[in-house]
Amino acid sequence: MQSEKKLTLWALAWPIFIEMFLQFLLGTADTLMVSHISDDAVAVVGISNQLFQAATILFMTVAAGAGVLIAQNLGAGKREEARIAAIIAVKVSLYISAGLSVLLFVFAEFVAKLLQIPDPLLPLAQSYISIVGGGTIFTAAMAALGSVIRNTGNTRGPMFIAIGMNVVHVLLGYVFIYGAFGFPQLGLTGAAVSTLVSRLAASIVLLRLFLYAFERKVEWRDFQLFDRSLFKDILRLGWPMGVNSASWFVTQLVIFSFVAMLGAKELAARTYMNTMESFCFLLGYSVAMAAQIQIAYLFGAGDNKEAYRSAFRALGLGLLIVIPGTLLLYAAGGNVLHLFTADAEIVALGVSLLAVNIILQPGKMLNMAINGALTAVGDTRFIMINGLLSMWLIATGLSYLFGIRLEWGLIGIYIGMIIDEYTRGVIVLIRWIKRAQLTRRKRVASESSDMSASQ
Q1: Residue 153, pLDDT score
Q2: Of 204, 278, 320, 404, which sits 20 to 30 A from 194 (CA to CA)?
Q3: Radius of gyration for the chain, computed over Cα atoms and rounded to the nearest angstrom
């Protein structure tokens, strides 16, 4: 772990921001290239990526739990426990993702139909899902290794690797999509191949960085290590995080299916919107992620007062960034959308969503900051229960009611999501203000001290 002096919110956040910002720019360039194939191709990529993100949750359950435990143990000076937790997380994540890779490769057509992708788009979807889904093991490696490395306090390493990966991805995308430099013109298949190759390269470099992430180098034989007690702690923290994140992504898939029911234009508009709205919260997300690492470290070190304050600093800074970002995006949105598509109807739909986005994004920032703080102190079960109830009853239920039943379309679906974000956000904010987990930690520590004294 980097020295405590370097564990400031800014020192942790700026590499995460640069990584996310460049990923956004390069991801936008990738979407732009795919949009030149067709709006149908964009729709396939959008809904398929929702599937891949949902699948990622299965192996990120372990990595996320381990990340919190690593930062807490390093804060408490338990460096070997942190190292073993990291090894376990990477190993288990790779096992799970290997099975998922096989399933997505073999059953790509079945999965495409399950997502209710319109029949004309099925051939494109089957090809894209089989190639990118078959490389899920590389996505898992990137996610697990990156999470572990960041939680040691090293946010710069994953930043540089992500930059390199995305540059390679865009360059290969240009070559394979358009058939540049004598290569065959593969269209959407070329986009999938470039994704697969760039993730493989990034996984190899991240693995090299991981081997030297701790004071004692991780040897290949160390992957045989397995501490059952430590693994139980990882799962105790991780499984509620996994359930909550999986629930969010699954509800997004369900909501995407509602959008698909509205038509191909609405699906394309929503996909473009997903790319554009990333600009609104990427800075805030970087701050929230950095705060989670910092709070977990402070909590492990027993500095509960500073841990409590860090959450509000992150929230305040995030809102100061997100709100102007949404306004800027709305002002420039129409011109930006014309870069992606010439369809006037899709552009009009996108602009209307950008207006609603001004209300949506501050609610997302509230959830990111306070959920991250509660996660850092181990209060993951509360987050899970709050998320399950709100995301299914409010986000999904109201999106269907407003968007489909009442025929309000995309705007109705967004209204359902807005109500969900603010409901969850207010509940977790009240939980953090009450300091339930921090108070419990003090009480447990006091009881332990009394027992030691009596012995």
Answers
A1: 85
A2: 278
A3: 22
